Amino acid sequence: MDSGTQQVPQLVARYFLSISDNPLVFLLLVNVFLLIVGCFMDTAAALIILVPIFAPIASQFGIHPLHFGLVFSLNLIIGLATPPVGLVLFVVCGITGLSLERLSKAIWPFVLIEIGVLFLVTYVPAIPMALPKLFGYY
After folding, report:
1. What is the pTM of this model?
2. Is residue 86 within 8 Å of residue 39, measured between CB atoms?
3. E strands in 10-94
C-alpha cells in the first residue's frame, strides 16, 4: 500500500498545525469545513469519518472534548438544513409540497441566526459548558 494514504489523521493534523497554532483559528477552519460537509453529507457518516481525524487535533489545541463535540454536532446539524443538498430540506418539501427553491429562499434568515449561535457556542465556551460545569463534569 502507498504510505501516503496510511496516516491521514496525522497529515491533516500537520496541515492544520502548519496553518496556525491558535485554537481559535483552528475552530474557525473546522466550522467552515463542517458547514460545507454538512450540506453534502449525512450527519452519521460525517461523524464516523471526521471525528477520528479532528478530535486528536482539537485535544492538541487544548479544546475540551465535550465543547468540541458540541461544536462538531451543531455544525453538521446546521448543514442538514442548508441548501443545496440539506437532507431536511427534501423532507420539508415532501411534507409541505413547497418547491426546493422557495423553501431555500425562506430558510436563509434562520440559517444565519443558527450560524450566529454556532459562533457564540464556538468562541464563548462558558455558554455551552455552563450546565456540565454545574453538574461537576467540567
Report:
1. 0.83
2. yes
3. none
